[in-house]
Amino acid sequence: xxRRVRLGLLVLTLSFAGLGTxxxxxxxxxxxxxxxxxxxxxxxxxxxxxxxTPVTAGEQAVFGRAVQAALNQLPLATRLTRRVTIPAELExxxxxxxxxxxxxxxxxxxxxxxxxxxxxxxxxxxYLGTYQPFVYVLPGIAMHAATTPLRAFLIGRLTFGAxxxxxxxxxxxxxxxxxxxxxxxxxxxxxxxxxxxFTSATxxxxxxxxxxxVAVFGAVLHLAYGGTRKRLxxxxxxxxxxxxxxxxxxxxxxxxxILLAGVGVMGWRPVWHMVRQxxxxxxxxxxxxxxxxxxxxxxxxxxxxxxxxxxxxxxLAFLHGFDGISTVLQQEIGVFGWLDTNQVGPSYVIWxxxxxxxxxxxxxxxxxxxxxxxxxxxxxNLLLTPILYAVIAAPAGGGVQGRWLLPVAAGVPLLAGVVxxxxxxxxxxxxxLLTLGVVATIAVVxxxxxxxxxxxxxVGPTGALLYFRNSLWSPPGGWVLWLGLAxxxxxxxxxxxxxxxxxxxxxxxxxxxx
Length: 514
Known about the structure:
Elements: H1 3-26, H2 35-46, E1 53-54, H3 65-71, H4 77-80, E2 82-85, E3 119-120, E4 123-126, H5 137-143, H6 149-176, H7 181-191, H8 194-200, H9 205-224, H10 230-247, H11 251-266, H12 268-277, H13 279-302, H14 311-321, H15 325-334, E5 335-336, E6 341-342, H16 345-365, H17 368-396, H18 402-409, H19 411-423, H20 428-459, H21 479-501
Antiparallel strand pairs: 1-2, 2-4, 3-4, 5-6
């Protein structure tokens, strides 16, 4: 890897770090799906209270007013809820007061308002109490260094964001080492949708789950295509896969799907040969993944409540689930807040066009195995919406959310970019110009997503377009600071692309898979 490419990757990493920091600071506390409940769980896990105490009969759990009405419609909410103890000074006050109410975040100025608390002093309630606790440990410990809810939220968001950045950087780096880097760069950036960046900078297990999915994809593709950074790839597969497996309910499923994608690209016989040649790394990696998947499944079976299911209800819910595919695809690109803050309309069309263009070109240029693997991966992402709706969402009284599928969905454009990079025959000049043009478009959409999200909290979704001049709510430091940093970060993404695209040499590979 040349010095120019290394510099480009450094600039790219710093740019996403800056963009994630903007999302972390410039959103009101509790302004991501279920974030106050994740926040309370993280604080409890950080002090060793991994499960909490079930709510007793007649005990009234206290949640923010905006969330309580929605929870009343969910039949499993009471069985999921746990009472925990957190530092009284970190009780989240008005966190989540903007939920389901696309208006300025003026309620954030009223800490301790009636009906806004999530507990009483050191006693707090979380309706995610039975969720897997493993990925909350490090952020939860760090959050205890804070003295106010705002600081605790910021520390938690930045810690989750730092973990996500490391995982994504590892997966992206491994993909850059197996194919010409221009198309790989486009595929990677197309997978890192505004929703991925937004979620990575929230107090949520989804942050770690999505990033771990990208890391595992990168490691699997690196091994499947015979990359030379095998030690790093095996380590990333072991650590990233273990993190993915214990992050949330669907973690073990995502691990299996990504591993099967690697087998699809490479073939069973080459996989078996690679395993025999790399027993030193394969055996401990397989052991770690097996134990992690077992831990995640064991927690799910032993702790998590399950609704009653019937074949008739499953069938009807599965058919109804197809109606939600378009909504899930839109959310994968980016619907912010508590899924109540949209981007500008053209952003969805532009991002969707980039992803489907990558997939289409990869299907035309790839080998037979690559076409089948990519096609099945796309089909799986579409069919998983009605499947998850029937099995999980409908019985629980909710709907499938796009962030649930992002650990695998983010890998679709990444695989497509690798396939194009290895097989497409495009002139050097054309690929350089196309890369810069597409990356510049992606950077513009990323900035517009952040800008529109800020507009909602500053003046409301239909308020003044230049809201930073006279906002009703502002983050610490003011809007000019964070909008400026977001703009610099997006320009940095384009600058990184120019550095990487200017180097026409391919990544290191011995060409095993294709």
